[in-house]
Design brief:
binds pyridoxal-5'-phosphate, about 300 residues, nine-stranded mixed sheet, 2 domains, 7 helices, alpha+beta, six-stranded antiparallel sheet, D-amino Acid Aminotransferase, Chain A, domain 1, D-amino Acid Aminotransferase, Chain A, domain 2
């Protein structure tokens, strides 16, 4: 059972989380016509009464772009103001996750995006580790990542998560922790809710935007950080077999942070992961507001 934050933003107002309810006839529930975000926050470990949100601006921009793909005009600045107020009202005392969702809130049938009422809500929950920080085992999914010609993959569209759900359940029910999905070209795309990185010959490699990935904000942060640290970084198509012989493999995402991969299918990966550890230490320091170089990635809210 999750510990939800007590106050939600729903239908234009802040109210008790338990009173924020939608009808069974809600359009988005039937057609997956929503788009969501997911960002993490923590109380400042310095105990100065501030809450730190990681890359709030980028999360709001991505949600606003996702909303546009759903024919809904919701400026990033509006989302940012509401999220800031949401945090002030909840005054979280532990590590937490914010889930904003835009959706077709109309009651009625017929899949469409025009002439249908839309709305926006936010709720939050306490969230520690989403995947084991010790590392996970991954299955290559029999489900393939969608293509942008069928679904706008630049948005975090709710309906797209049927594929993630199928892949995750298939992986877990066959004894693995996570799924890695190939794209329609048979190249590595991403995991059920994370981007994928590998290390080969000391190079940090990840599939590019042309590989049907979600534009992960953690992925972007890792690429910037790695380049700043002088690590050689390459965005290119990755073959499935490279996952089996890589020096290191890790997953990145807001929920998963940097999660090492211990095994892919039956291939066990090395237990020494110097680059993964190095990047993880830096990313943790950045999200905790301890790295002065990346202060602008941390949005501070006085509560
Ligand atoms: C399908 C998918 N890929 C990748 C990611 C990682 O993105 P981010 O780092 O922005 O959380 C997520 C999580 O949001 C996701 O759902």
């Amino acid at each position: 059972m999750h510990n939800f934050l007590p106050v939600a933003y729903f239908e234009g107002q802040f109210r008790d989380f338990n009173d924020a309810k939608i009808s069974i006839a809600t359009h988005a529930l039937h057609y997956g016509t929503g788009a969501f975000g997911g960002l993490r926050g923590i109380p400042d470990p310095d105990n100065n009464g501030q809450i730190l949100l990681f890359r709030l601006d980028r999360h709001c921009q991505r949600l606003s772009a996702s909303a546009r793909l759903l024919n809904y005009d919701l400026p990033a600045e509006t989302i940012q103001t509401i999220i800031t107020d949401f945090v002030k009202k909840n005054r979280p005392i532990t590590s937490f996750y914010i889930r904003p969702l835009v959706y077709t809130s109309d009651l009625g049938i017929s899949p469409r995006l025009h002439n249908v009422e839309k709305n926006f809500f936010i709720y939050g929950l306490e969230l520690g580790d989403y995947l084991s920080p010790e590392g996970v085992t991954c299955r290559i999914s029999s489900w393939y990542r969608q293509e942008d010609r069928s679904l706008p993959l630049r948005g975090k569209i709710s309906g797209a998560y049927i594929t993630s759900s199928l892949a995750k359940t298939e992986a877990v029910e066959s004894g693995f922790d996570e799924a890695i999905l190939m794209n329609s070209q048979g190249k590595v795309s991403e995991a059920s809710g994370m981007n994928v990185f590998i290390v080969r010959h000391g190079q940090l490699i990840t599939p590019g935007y042309d590989q049907d990935i979600l534009e992960g904000i953690t992925r972007d942060s890792i690429l910037t950080l790695a380049r700043d640290l002088g690590i050689e970084v390459v965005e290119r198509p990755v073959d499935k077999s490279e996952l089996f012989i890589a020096e290191e493999v890790f997953l990145s995402g807001t929920a998963a942070k940097i999660t090492p991969v211990r095994q892919v299918e039956s291939y066990r990966l090395p237990t020494q992961r110097p680059l993964t550890d190095h990047l993880r230490q830096h990313l943790t320091a950045i999200t905790e507001g301890r790295d002065p170089t990346y202060q602008d990635w941390v949005f501070r809210i006085d509560i």
